[in-house]
Amino acid sequence: MAKTFKNFINGEWVEPRSGAWFQNRNPANTADIIGRFPDSNAADIEAAVRSARRGFDLWRRTPAPARGDVLRRVGDLLVARKEKIADAMTREMGKVLAETRGDVQEGIDTAYYAATEGRRLFGHVVPSELRQKWAMSYRRPMGVVGLITPFNFPLAIPTWKMFPALLCGNAVVIKPSEDVPHTTHLLVEILLEAGLPPEVIQMVHGRGETAGRALVEHPQVPVISFTGSTATGAVIGETCGRMHKRLSLEMGGKNAMIVMDDADLDLALDGVLWGAFGTTGQRCTATSRLIVHRKVHDRFVRMVAEAAEGLRLGDGRQDKTDVGPLIHEDARKKVERYMGIAEEEGLEIVTGGKRPGGARLGNGFFFRPTVVEGVRPGMRMEQEEIFGPVLSVIRVNSYEDAVKVNNGVAYGLSSSIYTTDVNRAFRAMEDLDNGITYVNAPTIGAEAHLPFGGVKATGNGHREGGWEVYDFYSETKVCYVDYSGTLQRAQIDNYD
Ligand code: NAD
Asked: Whose CA is nearest to atom 40 of ligand 1?
């Protein structure tokens, strides 16, 4: 009998008011059931928000350094449980253990960064234009924040949102991805163990169209932070615009790696394999386009295809596995639909392009690492996010063409260039229209203490991580103190 997991609301583990449940299965072996989780509805969200408002009243009065101390203890517990969480994460999400360990490490880094921020949370004191008057700004928490997270970074992304939100003094309601609910459950257990007052955190499991939507539409949740697809982000954006909510959107990508004719091809090969097929291509920063200079095109594509062919598919918890499964059957069917589109667009599938054969992988959502050649700018294979282990190769004649191709998509998350020409590398940093550019490294590899996010259809101008996210989760208040004992009129009395 599968284990039953509950929501965390009002300081208690509770069954959903909806009375409904869903099953969470291992994508590498669907016979392995991790447990049943609440399929919550608007009534569960209502209870969570009510409790979170009480939590907010308490938590906003807790000094920020003390809030930071709780997060430091959270970091310590994540360190102690890194292996256990990584194992649980691979079991429900599929990516290999090295990657899920990295996912936990990102949570640890985010916790320790947040802990120190509790002793900063800087405001400003600036000179007043009048005598005997102080002028200053400081940060205030905003209230109950609603967090909605995707499946591909089951621990890191919830921590990117939760830790700065909590450090700033807000209470949290999180609706984790229905594909990876177990990892957030383990994280909430740690927050409670670290001493977070229970009503400050609520976790409501369920589907996007029901629980997620109810959270976004709740009038007493003034802040929403969402990471997921651009289509879902658009729906959420409409609601938040209408209700005047503060909203952070981190959405899709179609990231490119550029390989110039002077690149170190062995280095670029390691980079593209990791960038395109790590996490089975299910990263927002995945390398899904490879833009190659014509002079090295044929040689490099041959190298990539041969290496991709040699990657071993399997359960991410086994040592020899290079590439795990896709998250579910719908994701695999989507990749297969794009193989049909590649055919319609007259493209050559150099390697992969189908499910693996044989019984060993028969119970999981596996798809072979795929390289598609001959892709031209504007084709659907070049423009649309596939979110699977598929690399579209585009041949270019010059650096200028490469930049044009990189910038010619709707998205703008990450880009990368391999070159040994230092001038060209610096020009690329300026020319590539993305939130992140890597030089001689793949399109993935963000660090927790720098801002993370993209331009164009990838985001709405906010950033996660680093110092900028603290602006998102706090409101600036300005105070003036006049100790002159007389009425001093700004803009008037100082210019007499
Ligand atoms: P998704 O959009 O299907 O779901 C994301 C979350 O939104 C889930 O928790 C889901 O339940 C919820 N949701 C769905 N419909 C909703 C609605 N109407 N109202 C409220 N919530 C709703 O995305 P996914 O498949 O989990 O993740 C993959 C996508 O996420 C990709 O497009 C990827 O590029 C993107 N992503 C972006 C970043 C980034 O930082 N830019 C990071 C990771 C993933």
From this structure: 250
Q: Is the CB of 248 under 6 A from ligand 1?
A: no
Q: Confidence class of residue 495 from pLDDT cuts 50, 70 and 90? A: confident
3-state secondary structure of 161: helix
Beta bridge partners of 250: 227, 459
* Straight-line distance from the first to the last Cα atom of the chain, in angstroms, rounded to the nearest whole number: 82
Sign, CA torsion 272/275/280/284: negative
Q: How far apart are CA 357 and CA 342, in angstroms?
A: 21
Q: Which two tokens stand for residue 323?
A: 């590439």
Is 72 exposed, middle or buried, given 0-12, 13-18 or 19+ CB atoms closer than 10 A? middle
Size of the chain in residues: 496
SS3 124: strand
State mean pLDDT over 124-140: 97
Q: How far is the CA of 185 from the centre of ligand 1 (A)?
A: 18
**Ligand 1 contact via 250 beta carbon (within 6 Å):** yes
- Give residue for tokens 């997060």: 71
CA distances from 47 to 53, 144, 198 (A): 10, 13, 14
Predicted local distance difference test score (pLDDT) of residue 2: 84
Burial class (CB in 10 A: 0-12, 13-18, 19+), 231: exposed
The token duo for 296 is 């090295």
The answer to whether 62 and 169 have CB atoms below 8 angstroms apart is: yes
Structure tokens of 312?
Answer: 């071993």
| Ligand 1 pocket residue status of 228, Cβ below 6 Å | yes
Tell me, yes or no, if the pTM score tops 0.85: yes
For the beta carbon of residue 62, count every other beta carbon within 10 angstroms: 17
